């Protein structure tokens, strides 16, 4: 367990429901009296904002390194302090996103891992959301604009790459689960995650 809080990461393809599930899980935890910190990557710090602002032209290795640097800063300045304050941190995207998105951008995942392997803490639990590729495709089709990497991937390919990332990180000792969100409203997805959430360490 990390400090006295819990570090939970939500992962899965563009449009699978990470942001929606993060909000539903936060509501559920808060209704039980838990302290919750919802965050995501790229972060809202200057480097994270720069990455988002330049997502069309920041590519390949430069993007992979920028995302890893933002992640390191995000851990040090936001995630670790929130964990130390006993919060459950819900993070929308983390290292698995890099293993998948930077692969879609042409990099070997082993190189991407080398930029991220030393980062600490690792999540207490990583939750991969999956649903029907056609459902994801229909959601993405409704978006007014799609980012460069959204266009580079497809629901089927991303689902397969997240599965591959999960297998790799299982081998690194990460605690991970996959939740099939088919026909489940967000509050029920949140309830399923809650059932797997490690208990908090008692405050010292
Ligand atoms: N469990 C669910 N049931 C039905 N619709 C959902 C569910 N979860 C999310 N949605 C809908 O799917 C769409 C995409 O959701 P969301 O933005 O949370 O996905 P995301 O994975 O965060 O996407 P991105 O990675 O591209 O930011 C939204 O319209 C949202 O309302
Ligand atoms: C965490 C992470 C992010 N990115 C890039 C890919 C997209 O341009 C954005 C994510 O935006 P979304 O609103 O969450 O879909 O950031 C990346 O390339 N690698 C990463 O690890």
UniProtKB/TrEMBL annotation:
<keyword id="KW-0545">Nucleotide biosynthesis</keyword>
<keyword id="KW-0067">ATP-binding</keyword>
<dbReference type="InterPro" id="IPR018094">
    <property type="entry name" value="Thymidylate_kinase"/>
</dbReference>
<dbReference type="GO" id="GO:0006235">
    <property type="term" value="P:dTTP biosynthetic process"/>
</dbReference>
<dbReference type="GO" id="GO:0005829">
    <property type="term" value="C:cytosol"/>
</dbReference>
<dbReference type="InterPro" id="IPR039430">
    <property type="entry name" value="Thymidylate_kin-like_dom"/>
</dbReference>
<keyword id="KW-0547">Nucleotide-binding</keyword>
<comment type="function">
    <text>Phosphorylation of dTMP to form dTDP in both de novo and salvage pathways of dTTP synthesis.</text>
</comment>
<dbReference type="GO" id="GO:0006227">
    <property type="term" value="P:dUDP biosynthetic process"/>
</dbReference>
<feature type="domain" description="Thymidylate kinase-like">
    <location>
        <begin position="10"/>
        <end position="150"/>
    </location>
</feature>
<dbReference type="Pfam" id="PF02223">
    <property type="entry name" value="Thymidylate_kin"/>
</dbReference>
<keyword id="KW-0808">Transferase</keyword>
<dbReference type="InterPro" id="IPR027417">
    <property type="entry name" value="P-loop_NTPase"/>
</dbReference>
<comment type="similarity">
    <text>Belongs to the thymidylate kinase family.</text>
</comment>
<dbReference type="GO" id="GO:0005524">
    <property type="term" value="F:ATP binding"/>
</dbReference>
<dbReference type="GO" id="GO:0004798">
    <property type="term" value="F:dTMP kinase activity"/>
</dbReference>
<keyword id="KW-0418">Kinase</keyword>
<protein>
    <recommendedName>
        <fullName>Thymidylate kinase</fullName>
        <ecNumber>2.7.4.9</ecNumber>
    </recommendedName>
</protein>
<dbReference type="GO" id="GO:0006233">
    <property type="term" value="P:dTDP biosynthetic process"/>
</dbReference>
């Amino acid at each position: 367990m990390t400090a006295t809080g819990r570090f939970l990461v939500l992962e899965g393809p563009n449009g699978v429901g990470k942001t929606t599930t993060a909000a539903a899980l936060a509501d559920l935890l808060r209704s039980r009296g838990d302290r919750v910190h919802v965050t995501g990557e790229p972060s809202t710090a200057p480097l994270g904002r720069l990455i988002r602002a330049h997502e069309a032209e920041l590519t390949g290795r430069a993007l992979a390194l920028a995302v890893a640097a933002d992640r390191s800063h995000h851990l040090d300045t936001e995630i670790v302090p929130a964990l130390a304050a006993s919060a459950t941190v819900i993070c929308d995207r983390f290292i698995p996103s890099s293993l998948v998105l930077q692969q879609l951008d042409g990099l070997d995942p082993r190189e991407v891992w080398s930029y991220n392997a030393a980062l600490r803490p690792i999540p207490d639990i990583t939750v991969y959301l999956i649903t029907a590729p056609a459902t994801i495709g229909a959601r993405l089709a409704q978006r007014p604009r799609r980012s460069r990497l959204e266009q580079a991937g497809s629901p089927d390919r991303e689902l397969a790459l997240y599965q591959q990332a999960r297998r790799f990180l299982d081998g690194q000792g990460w605690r991970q689960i996959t939740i099939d969100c088919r026909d489940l409203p967000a509050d029920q997805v949140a309830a399923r995650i809650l059932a797997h959430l490690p208990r908090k360490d008692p405050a010292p």
